[in-house]
Amino acid sequence: MLDKKRDNLTIAGHVFHSRLFLGTGKFSSNQLMSESIKASGTQMVTIALKRVDQFHPEDDILEAVKKLDVKLLPNTSGARTAKEAVLCAELCREAFETNWLKLEIHPDPKYLLPDPIETLKATEELAKKGFIILPYIHADPVLCKRLEDVGTSAVMPLGAPIGTNRGLETKAMLNIIMAQSNVPVIVDAGIGRPSHAAEALEIGADAVLVNTAIAVSADPIRIAHAFRQAVEAGSIYRSTDSAPVSDLAQASSPFTEFISSL
Amino acid sequence: MFDQLFYSASWSDIEQKIQSVNERDIQRAIAHAGHGTPDDFLALISPLAAEHLPALAEASRKLTRKRFGNTIQMYIPMYLSNECQNICTYCGFRYDNQLPRVRLSDEQIISEAEHIKAMGFDHVLLVTGEANKTVGIDYLEHAVNIIRPFFQNISIEVQPLDSEEYVRLIQAGVYSVLVYQETYHEANYKHYHPKGKKSNFTYRLQTPDRLGKSGIHKIGLGVLLGLENWRVDSYFTALHQHYLQKVYWKTKYSISFPRLRPAIGMESPKYELSNRDLVQLICAYRLFNEDLELSLSTREEATFRDHLFSIGVTSVSAGSKTNPGGYATLPEELEQFEIDDKRSPAEIVHVLKSKGLQPLWKDWEKVFSFSE
Fold this sequence. Notes:
By secondary structure, chain A is α/β, with parallel strands linked by helices. Chain A is 37% helix and 15% strand. In chain A, the strands form 3 sheets. In chain A, strands 5-4-3-10-9 form a 5-stranded parallel sheet. In chain A, strand 6, helix 4 and strand 7 form a beta-alpha-beta unit. In chain A, helix 3 packs across helix 4 and helix 7 packs parallel to helix 9. Chain A is globular and about 85 Å long. By secondary structure, chain B is an alpha/beta fold. Chain B has a single domain, classed as TIM Barrel (Alpha-Beta Barrel), CATH 3.20.20. Helices cover 41% and strands 12% of the residues of chain B. Chain B has 15 helices and 9 strands. In chain B, helix 13 links the parallel strand 6 and strand 7. The longest helix of chain B is centred in the middle third of the chain and has 18 residues. The mean pLDDT of chain B is 92. Classes of the chains: A alpha/beta, B alpha/beta.
């Protein structure tokens, strides 16, 4: 069983029992999205402000998520500059009634890669305005430290380009980020399989955010459940002193026998 | 500018190349699925590739779902004016057609916008003919200012404009501009567009470059399918898009598939594009570039559209009228082309949902459109 107390994650003073966060895009219906969210056991989901549709309350994504017992993490998807992101953030705070924000600034609509310069600028400005910021970024260790300096509450480095399901292709950089981070590290983007999510936690990530791999699978509810189990397994592993990986033989060799006679 | 690349490829060479595509070319194009080159696209639109159509369609469907999810964007056209100084030989709005000319007044624009909004739409496409004196930049900018409070996302399909004019429209809140080359066959382009500003092939060819430089969010490309050999014309469209994306990397791109439809006083299509051809073309674009938005209008027949919803298109219109004032204020005899799929938005939504696709009425926030 998961030892909840031991495996809790705290972001900006808020305690999460689940280390899995979900995106809400790409689902074939809001009902399927809601069921998947429940099956995942997540306690926080991210929603794009651009998708919130007050004129179709029966189809509105925000209305559907509000019925669930999860924390809302509005995002600024669509913003190309810090200025646009800051304007969007203000609207998010009003529409979602929260100061939590997933900051996404991608001027590149093809790969949706985040702009590090604009992201740093916007984080600094939004932190001063009292936002709890979780920025989506490249797996750039220096950028992570710079974001810490200006008041970020977590960092969300990508494992691989968004929507690609390619896993932890940035692992070498993620290792450095985790080794030196003073804020929670949430691996976002690229996580395509439950094993990728487990691996992220095993190497020290505090949480993962998954969307495409669940939303466009043939059975999102089952896959959401699979991710839940993988994340729980990874959570236990990361909080337990586990057997170190080693290529060295444990037995002594003829060359070391002399040591015992010393 | 695209000119240089365009003039490095001749129409007849491309025509020849399409005919000589072999199996290896097609397999290579499939291996590059989602991130192909213009040569890959050329292989995918070849007659030989048509033999692989079921496999191409399945690959296209999967890529589309992965990239865009199980969703379809809903939009609707709103015609502002049918005044036109051009004599496009295939168009119902052509200058020498005797029909009542209409340019919507402020009150009429508001009335149309209210009606469209009540139908549920938040993404609107404004359409006009080309009449620079009466429906020029001042009229368009004014219209966008009136319409902006009603919708989150405004696209326009109007005459090509100068860079400064595009900047004005973007500042007024225009998200996307659709500009179709009609055909990349330069000699025949002049035959179809004998008079008016539109007869300037080069000015039109350079329009997407002007748009890219102006910082537009999205550029819509296309050719009028049926005017010339659709395979060659589509190759040049793909070449154009490929070039634009590399230069104007912050901009999104969409492709539309206007097939020649009956209109008053037009010539019948020289090169017919069959339904099977259209399926191949849609799949070819998707396998060429997984990020392309592919748009489907109500020109197409209902049952056929239902099939296309699943295999690659990402945005669809519904309940469209192609005459100015057609939704609320004026009768129907002025339409630019005849609508085939006359089903209401509610009926289309029902079909989409039955196919496991979520209709998106809103996928934009206007704060992004005019904050710069």
